[in-house]
Amino acid sequence: MTRHARSGARFSAAVASVALLWASPARAQQVAASFEELQSLIRPGETIYVTDAAGMTSKGRFAGFSAASQLLVQRGAKTPALSLLERDVNNVAVERADSLWNGMLIGFVSGAVPAALTGAGASYVSGGEVAGVAAGYGCIGLLTGLLIDVLNKEKVTIYVHAPGPRSARIHLSSIGLKSGVGIRISAEF
Hints:
- The protein is built from four helices and eight strands; from the N terminus they run H-H-E-E-E-E-E-H-H-E-E-E.
- By secondary structure, it is an alpha+beta fold.
- The strands form two sheets. A six-stranded antiparallel sheet has the order 4-3-2-1-5-6.
- Helix 1 packs antiparallel against helix 3 and helix 3 runs antiparallel to helix 4.
């Protein structure tokens, strides 16, 4: 192996390592505490999961807000929209998908660049053959990246009902004992 081929192989290994370790940037998620704040975080047609105050979760498509600030959830074509007041909703999560273009781009580069760099270091292969092989591996990477992005969906919580103020309560009650009368004190926070 010539010196040029060794340096090309090292470079292609470095590029492949960087491509494999390329991470998506973390995005801060905003969580609304009221339906007014929620309106800017959700779009009609998105798949949402609504958990009511009793703990029951309903899945459907976000249909909008009514004039009375009720959350409207369409659960099926033949069923009427579910209308929920803000006080009846515990939390709302939305199903978000990754954009498709970045997975295709990363996949193509991850497949084509190492093949092109490896082929460029070989003296017995023509430039046209290297380009063809690199394009083939790039297309395999592109399809793999597309498949990963299509399947990459996550539920993101976008609304949590703010708990109301609670007051402490003290309960006093009398109890009868064999030796006399007693007092039971209980506190609730």
